[in-house]
Every structure is written in C-alpha cells, then in structure tokens.
Amino acid sequence: MGATGVKIVAANLTIVKARGTRAYIRSKTNLITSPRLQAFHSCVRQQLQGKHGSQADIRSGLAQAARSCAGGRASAAPRRISRRF
What we know:
Elements: H1 3-11, E1 13-16, E2 24-27, H2 35-48, H3 55-71
Antiparallel strand pairs: 1-2
C-alpha cells in the first residue's frame, strides 16, 4: 500500500483514550452499541418526530427532548454503576 493508501486509512481512524486502559484505535464510523445510548437516541427521535420550525425552535426542542429523555431513565437500559473508589 502506498503513501496515499495509508493516508486514506488513517483518515478514517481515531484514537480512543479509555479511562483505566491503554489507548486503542477504532473506526470513525463505529455504530452505537451501548443500549443506554440507543434508548436515549430513540427517545429523542420519537419526541422530535414531525416537528418543524426555525433553527432556534429546533434547537430548543432538541434541548428539551434531551433533558426529558435523560431524566426518564426508567424506560432506558439500566445504568452500570462503577465500583471503583
């Protein structure tokens, strides 16, 4: 693989510095795999479905939907509690 190929591959990768583990490389196009994050996105998507308006209206609607979905964790996947102190 030539220099151009290396640049193309490197452009689609990102370095992740995870807490407590060594840094690793993953694709920039990874899918969301966390059930909690999937539930949050689904909740926000359902609340914003069919809403239209100006950019300011959409931003305020998105903020309001995010607050209400983050607060209602009962319907979302359970949150993992860290036992590290």
